[in-house]
Write a structure and sequence with these properties.
The complex is a heterodimer of chains A (247) and B (124). Helices cover 37% and strands 25% of the residues of chain A. Chain A has 9 helices and 9 strands. Chain A has a 6-stranded mixed beta sheet with strand order 5-6-7-3-8-9, with helices on both faces. In chain A, helix 6 links the parallel strand 6 and strand 7. The longest helix of chain A is centred in the last third of the chain and has 17 residues. Chain B is mainly alpha-helical and 124 residues long. Chain B is built from 5 helices and 2 strands. In chain B, helix 1 packs across helix 3 and helix 2 packs across helix 3. The chains are: A alpha/beta (247), B mainly alpha (124). At the A-B interface, helix 6, helix 8 and helix 9 of A face helix 2 and helix 3 of B.
């Protein structure tokens, strides 16, 4: 088997001493997988995303993205990774066109046509400041920018939070089209398992700062069935989130 | 657009839902021999599922002889050799019947009662 695209080993992280958000978290995302990172609110999904981006170092344990440590080799990792944050975009006063111009300057291999196509499809006004757009439009701008980069790993941090059903559908469609066009490894944090089930190949359930179950979707479903439980992804999630594992 | 949906709340894997639905459309003749199916990308987008899943379904239906893939042109409903479809239609119903028989047993119905229900429903 080839090396995993993302490898996390006994990771621990606390914002405040003695109150770890992530404790002893281990996870491997195989190259080419689309893994759902499924956890209830406050499970530590965003914290893990930030550690994978190298925004801060882990307290203990190891994080590797494409064989590099994000904190120590931030530039190397950032070149190969695209991130759609929970609260997009960073500069509310920048126009959408200005946002694209920024990326054009800083990103090697930037594909302006790919980003522009997404924005056109969603009828995003280019001359508007990002801060004046609706929450759904802002999410689509973030995704468009992420898809304009030739990243091998795409991290999506609950990008559908607060989006209406049409905007969510647009976002999922964009992800499906990206998958049809090229090989990319995706870690998709979400609290809506049923909506993304069709797109996923793998799932990891997080509760209490730990991974309580992870694997290929068909294996997880097989286990649930063998145990006499519902094999619908949402029911599997409820089982793991509400189970004895929760801290 | 092809009439097919997936139910994410169902315990049946999405891959199987798509495969069974397509098989039904092909065996029932809704998709007649020579009809073109949507591309992998089109169907993946329509259903919001991973394109690899659709590709796998197409590959397996092709192996079963229900689809013919012409690289560069697309995927088409295949013309089956004579007589085979009836067998396959029976096999399709047999799977459902097995599940139904199990359910009937679980709720304490006899085989005769189950058959009577099926006959009533068939006459509608």
């Amino acid at each position: 088997m080839s090396d995993p695209a993302i490898a996390i080993d006994r990771l621990r992280y606390a914002y405040r001493p003695g109150r770890p958000v992530l404790r002893d978290l281990s996870l491997a995302v195989p190259a080419g997988a689309v893994m759902g990172f499924l956890g209830p609110n406050g499970a530590g999904k965003t914290t893990l995303m930030h550690l994978l981006n190298g925004f801060m170092p882990p307290d203990t344990g190891a994080v590797q993205v494409l064989g590099c440590e994000p904190w120590r080799e931030r530039v190397a990792v950032q070149r190969r990774l695209a991130f759609v944050p929970e609260h997009p975009p960073a500069y509310p006063w920048l126009t959408v066109a200005g946002f694209l111009a920024f990326y054009r300057r800083v990103c090697p291999g930037w594909d302006e046509a790919a980003a522009q196509r997404r924005l056109d499809e969603a009828a995003i006004p280019m001359d508007q400041p990002c801060g004046a757009l609706s929450r759904g439009q802002q999410g689509l701008v973030s995704l468009a920018v992420a898809l304009g980069r030739p990243a091998e790993v795409l991290l999506l941090d609950d990008p559908t939070l607060g989006l209406d059903v049409l905007a969510r559908r647009r976002l999922y469609t964009a992800v499906v089209e990206e998958l049809a066009a090229r090989a990319v490894t995706i870690l998709f944090a979400t609290h809506l398992p049923a909506e993304v089930e069709g797109v996923l190949t793998h799932a990891a359930f997080v509760a209490g700062g730990r991974i309580v179950a992870a694997g290929a979707l068909e294996d997880l479903k097989g286990e649930a069935e063998a145990a006499g439980r519902s094999a619908a992804l949402e029911d599997i999630a409820l089982h793991h989130w509400g189970g004895d594992h929760a801290a | 657009m092809i009439q097919i949906t997936v139910n994410p709340k169902s315990p049946i894997p999405i891959y199987e839902q798509i495969k069974e639905r397509l098989r039904l459309l092909l065996l029932a003749g809704t998709l007649a021999p020579g009809d073109q199916l949507p591309s992998v990308r089109q169907l993946a987008v329509q259903l919001t599922v991973n394109p690899n899943t659709v590709a796998k379904v197409y590959r397996e239906l092709e192996q079963e002889g229900l689809l013919a893939n012409h690289p560069g042109k697309g995927c088409f409903a295949a013309a089956p050799p004579g007589g085979r479809r009836r067998d396959e239609r029976r096999a399709l119903i047999r799977n459902e019947a097995r599940a139904l028989a199990e359910k009937a047993r679980a709720v304490g119905l006899s085989a005769a009662e189950l058959i009577a229900i099926i006959q009533e429903e068939s006459h509608e």
